[in-house]
Design goal:
3 domains; single chain; Substrate Binding Domain Of Dnak, Chain:A, Domain 2; 25 helices; HCP/CODH; Rossmann fold; Prismane-like_a/b-sand; 10% strand; alpha/beta; six-stranded parallel beta sheet; globular
């Protein structure tokens, strides 16, 4: 077996520096340059105390002017900004889920999309009280699609998925009045509350921020995750590779980037089409290579083993290699900078969604009804572009690591079944994991999620925290760009068990898993809520008492705030490495870091020093263990 070592952040950075040299030759700018042009940042914005919600202002709070024109103070302004930020993230994630539900309505035995996990569809239908006996699976899929879409605008009741949570958690939500009603209603309510002349009470604004986040994690995101599994297959462990070295100099390189798997699944289908492969060979290429960036990458990696080129802040790097024929994007986290950058190379920047239209791009509209035709056109465009590649600009950094990805809740339970004593224990539960935690073989678990952020050293916090946690026998579950940081470093290689403490190393060997488990894209953090709920039910303990915490050390987007709110609302203490831009209000800070605990038994901790952040998580896990007497 070849010797194993992690790829360091310094190696990531050296590879980027070399690519930026190519960029300088062709006059391209980069996020690194743009960060310099934008700093120092506006202090009012950083502290959340500027308001432009009406046109009497904009207003900003100072000692000389402690109230805006309407009389709102720093606490009301920071609270409203925080709630609007949350609503933006909840709307974005939930709209992703809505698109998946619409796509589910198009499934047909001979259609672009099919039902790949009928068993899961039937299980969800039974959960929702829908008759399944003797039903045609496609007829059932269409009914479930319509029911799911009704969750977005139903006039009465709360989200169906809430019943998955333990009864204790459901009661907390009910008593705190944060059960999400219709998904769109919570976003609409947030926007209404923050309109000029409405709420300025921090407690009320933070409460609606939790509710709006909940409409994402226990509403729209859960729809997105569950029905993606139905159509594209529920992830199970699959081997892949990660980092820029997955791009191939002798092949057509198509990069898929964004979040919606409906597009990327089709691109993968047509990249394997013999007609397209033959066309690539006539163009002088040896084949077609699809690789991913951001959460679209997570989606196709965990279902197809498609390699992961990079995460959020690597999106420009794939173009800077000079070997990218097309970067094909759907929605969310896409740099408008990709347009002008692509024009410095031969790369086609192809946008596909009316929700994410950008200058300097080729717009090839993608929709579920014409998905095959659209995908084929996109692949053909990329293949024909191979002939325009400028060989003198080609440089692919030879950094690459192996990764095992695709640990859905179902896959984790199946893995645990493999280490269960079938003579004594019931299969299909999380009890083997709980036994490892109770015995102290594992100290606990951290759910690490989130983006990259130029305000901190990209990927450094993710990787250093993971190394620290696994060394202390804490298993890490990951999604989104933190998952790709782990994969690129080598922490999802099963051989990374050698970096663990003795207990976690033994678990990795017995279960044949890496020490950090890939659970999917950022929409799939809903899977983590289901896993926490199952652990709670199987242990008989409230979620808040489990030795489990959440962490987003490099978060940057509105979606991340929505996620943080639903993770905290589920009873999981959440640790942030970047300030949530409310520091200008002592009251909003209090509600987020202490006050919400009386509603949901969890709260936020903000710590920008990464070493101290890791220590704080470990201390919280040990405090929970001590409270349980384990």
């Amino acid at each position: 077996m070849s010797s194993f070592r992690l790829t360091t952040v310094e190696e990531f950075e050296a590879a980027t520096d070399r690519l930026l040299e190519t960029g300088a030759k062709v006059g391209a700018d980069s996020w690194q340059m743009r960060v310099k042009n934008q700093t120092p940042h506006c202090k009012f914005g950083e502290e959340g105390i500027c308001c432009r919600i009406c046109s009497m202002g904009p207003c900003r709070i100072t000692k000389k002017a402690p109230r805006g024109i309407c009389g709102c103070d720093a606490h009301g302004i920071a609270g409203r900004n925080f709630l609007r930020f949350t609503a933006g993230g909840a709307a974005t994630h939930s709209d992703h889920g809505r698109e998946i539900c619409h796509t589910l309505h198009t499934v047909a035995p001979d259609g672009n999309y099919k039902v790949k996990d009928a068993e899961k569809l039937i299980r969800i239908a039974k959960e929702w009280g829908v008759e399944t006996e003797g039903r045609d699976i496609y007829e059932l899929a269409h009914e479930m699609s319509e029911l799911a879409l009704m969750e977005y605008g139903k006039p009465f009741g709360v989200q169906r998925w809430l019943k998955r949570a333990p009864e204790h958690t459901q009661k907390l939500w009910h008593d705190a009045e944060i059960e999400p009603r219709a998904i769109d209603r919570e976003v609409s309510t947030a926007m209404h509350m923050t309109h000029m002349g409405n709420s300025s009470k921090p407690e009320a604004l933070v409460r609606q921020a939790l509710r709006s986040g909940m409409s994402d994690g226990w509403g729209g995101s859960m729809c997105g995750t569950e029905f993606s599994d139905v159509m594209f297959g529920t992830p199970k462990p699959v081997d892949t590779e990660a980092n820029l070295g997955v791009m191939k100099e002798d092949q057509v390189n198509i990069i898929v980037h964004g979040h919606d798997p409906s597009l990327s699944e089709m691109i993968c289908e047509y990249a394997d089409d013999p007609e397209m492969v033959a066309l690539a060979k006539t163009m002088g290429a040896n084949g077609i290579n699809v690789a991913g960036v951001c959460c679209t990458s997570n989606e196709v990696a965990m279902r197809r083993g498609v390699p992961m080129a990079g995460n959020f802040l690597q999106q420009e790097n794939v173009v800077l290699t000079g070997a990218c024929e097309a970067i094909v994007v759907d929605v969310q986290c896409i740099f408008p900078a990709l347009g002008p950058l692509s024009k410095c190379f031969h790369t086609k920047f192809i946008t596909t969604s009316p929700i994410a239209q950008m200058p300097d791009s080729d717009f090839i509209r993608f929709n579920a009804e014409t998905a095959g035709e659209n995908a084929k056109k996109i692949v053909r465009t990329a293949v024909e572009n191979f002939a325009n590649r400028k060989q003198e600009l080609v440089h692919i950094p030879q950094l690459k690591q192996k990764a095992t990805v695709g640990y859905s809740v179902e896959a984790i339970v199946k893995t645990l079944d493999g280490v269960t004593n079938s003579q004594v224990d019931v299969l299909g539960t999380t009890k083997p994991l709980l036994e490892c935690i109770t015995s102290g073989v594992l100290r606990g678990a951290v759910a690490m999620v989130g983006c990259n952020n130029p305000r901190v050293r990209p990927d450094y916090a993710h990787i250093e925290l993971m190394k620290k946690l696994i060394k202390n026998d804490i298993i890490v579950i990951l999604s989104g760009c933190s998952a790709q940081a782990a994969a690129r470093a080598g922490l999802m290689d099963k051989r990374a068990k050698d970096l663990c403490g003795a207990g976690l190393k033994r678990v990795c060997e017995l279960a044949d898993i890496p020490p950090v488990l890939h659970m999917g894209s950022c929409v799939d953090i809903s899977r983590m809520m289901v896993l926490a709920s199952e652990l709670s039910k199987d242990s008989g303990l409230p979620i808040s008492k489990l030795p489990v915490v959440g962490c987003a050390p490099e978060w940057m987007s509105e979606k991340a705030v929505s996620i943080g709110n639903y993770v905290v609302a589920t009873g999981i203490d959440t640790f942030l490495g970047v300030d949530p831009q409310v520091s200008g209000s002592s009251e909003v800070t209090y509600w987020l870091t202490e006050g919400v605990r009386k509603w949901v038994e969890a709260a936020y901790t903000v710590e920008k020093d990464i070493e101290k952040l890791g220590d704080a998580m470990i201390a919280r896990i040990e405090e929970k263990r001590a409270a349980l007497g384990i």
